[in-house]
Batch of 3 targets.
Target 1
Amino acid sequence: MNMDGFRWDYVSREKTLKGFPLIAQNGVSAKYVNPIFPANSYPNWYAITTGRYDETHGMIQNYMYDNQTGDHFLMGPHPNASHTHWWTQSEPLWITAEKQGIKTAMYLWDGCQVAFNGIEVTNCVEYHTVSEDQSKADEETRNYSQKILDDFADDKYRLVFLYHEMVDHIGHAFGPNSPTIREAIKGIDEILYDLYDSLAKRKLDKEVNVVIVSDHGMTQLDDFKPIVLEDRVDFDNIEVFLGGGSGAQITPKAGKLDEVYKQLRRVKGIKVYKRDDIPKQFHYKHNSLVLPILVTVDIGYTLRAPIIEGVVYPAQQSQKKPRGGNHGYDINDTDMRGIMYGFGPAFKKNFMAQPLEMVDHYNLFCHLLGINPIPNNGTDSKVREMLVS
């Protein structure tokens, strides 16, 4: 289960939760999980399910542009997110499992709708935009979690993915320090408590292993200073601008790279890299989808781009309404950290693991399923210590 935007310290600061403490006591948890760069959803979803950094797995951002084809990747449920070529640089876990005879179901996990070299997941319920109503969003997650138990009881699948978006949605709208986010945390906690209880009542607790992860954290934007980029950079020199908020990628027009780069270098609150100069520790620059200029935004600032159709993606209208929270900032900032919990017959009990990297999850899944992993960047010893044997 992937809980989008669930920050590493949400559980420890809430004293009335039942589900997370119960799982930690009867299973394992990690102190925290570091995201890969950038600390956004799609890069980290694919790190979770391939064990690779994005310069290898290819899902480098929530928004992408292919200079070779002119195609844009925009987050699901936009139809461009289903264009096959975005997903095929690395084989994801669900395809590896299917190839090795493990029937798999995926609920609301974007990418499950795409065939990989002609292979499809057994059952895919495609992602759709989360309901604005928390009770409805929680009800959907609760219903799917109970359906999954039905499927396991009927031996229909051995691997199931479930995506929950509400915590991220509320974090963006109101911020991670808001009363509203506390209600979202309590909502998913109750779902987990009921899931744990249902497993025992159905006598599946000795057969089913459950892993709960998040893709990144969230930081509060109340005091962040806006950077109005059109006041500092000539957008007539830009062919493609992707992003905003916590980062961006840019393709300048022919012959304008140095001019755009120099203008950006004078802007306070950001760091600017030509593609060849992107730091090695980002594990990023060697992918063909990385554009000529990368912009990262410092904590304390938020980037605003103008509305220019056919140049700026995504449309920036939403930035006129201030957001409460955001992610995508420095992966070493504590606010960007995520979570990992696991319980079931394969896991030790009441075990706290040392900090994990997002790429470590993949090897854990392969151990639990007994399948051969693809070559990956995860550290196998970190996940083995969480297992009974």
Target 2
Amino acid sequence: MNNKISVLRKSKGLTQTELAKKIGISRQYLRDIEIGKSVPSVSIAKGFSDFFNKSIDDIFFENNVVHGLQKT
């Protein structure tokens, strides 16, 4: 899963530790999400969405691809 968590986190000037605390997850789990090793649960994805004020699609999916389907 490609995501923009790292870019969004850095744009806010946050470390992985700081963002992880705000979302309520471990720094290691955040790192794994950022590098695509782990996929967040819906509730964690919603936490990122709420924190960054962006949709889950905007954060976790390519601009023109949603759930493996090309937007037309």
Target 3
Amino acid sequence: MNQNIADFEATVKFNNVTESVEVSVGDNTFSNLMAILTGYNPSSALEKVCDWHQRGCLDQTPFIWKYFRNASYLTAFAEDETGMSTFNYQKPGFVESPTDFYLRPFQKAFESDLKTWKCEDCSMRYCIGRRITSSYVYDMARDFARRFVDERPIWGLFWSNSFSHDSYQMPSKMENYVLQYLLDYQADGVFEQSIMVFLSDHGSRWGEITSLPSVFLEERLPSMFIYLPPWFRAQYPEYATAYVDCPKCQSLFYPVGESRTCEDAGIPEHFCTCVPYKRLTANWARRIPPRVIGRMNEYLAGRNLSGICSELTLKYIYKTEMKIGLEHDFDGDLPVVDVTTYRTKFQVDQNTADFEATVKFNNVTESVEVSVPTISRLDRYEYVSTCVDDKIDKMYCICKSD
């Protein structure tokens, strides 16, 4: 979050927006946008809606744009980088156009028929033809608003990955580019009639930045800013201040309890930033990472991947931290407990891959409780996991063939 604010300082000042706290609820864009757009995370959607791995399921999912369309809004959805787009990467995508205006068919044509360029060590296209890839998305947003904002209510989601996903340094270089689009929207009169949410879904998760102490917060606290027109703030002051709270499955405009927890807000323990952790120096803490790796190997075996994925072995422990309750003196002695929550960051021998896990460890039985799909991979893995197709499997499989 702090990195995003620093990268877009002028943009934030231009919009005169209020910052709201947003916490990631999952490891990737799909998890976080599903929560924002449907109220479901992938697991609850799988249980209560349909199997989103199957073709046609996403068309049945109650995305928020359906409610706006039923209320006579015109809707639009645009996203750049079609190969890595939220609902198509390792997923079947939509059978029918999800919104009234949908950029994907045109974007695919641009990508296939025009020359493209990628920055060094980037997997996404920075330029298509003679234009920056994200400009196709932002231009659609501008055209959509200019054409219809005076005629009828509109709702749109315009999402770019191409310049921010692979490099934590690139957004700062793109600030003036993004700011110019906002100035254009202002000149068009769009802001006078619109509520704008300027947000991301997670911070940087790999590369040099992962060595910084702040990376735990960087990954889990994406930025979110909400712009309300001056007339709206003046006419509805109670709504203009109520959106600072965003509880689970509740409207942004209703009061919430002051003592709610991450669990109350639907945020998994691994992504919770509300409770502090204290670094351990005792030798016994070294017992935790090998047992986490054992669970990861069990996961691969349970997925019948042991034949093609390397067995993981511990190379190095960066740190292990213990969860400390807010009522506990952080500078005092650690509480004595048999079972509690720990966070550990470690490296395996295979491809020197880095991982971070949040686990429950039993000091008596020396057993760990961890959901492997919640373990974060902290280095890039697209070129060492080509032997598997599943997005989650790719994070833990280091192919023997690669």
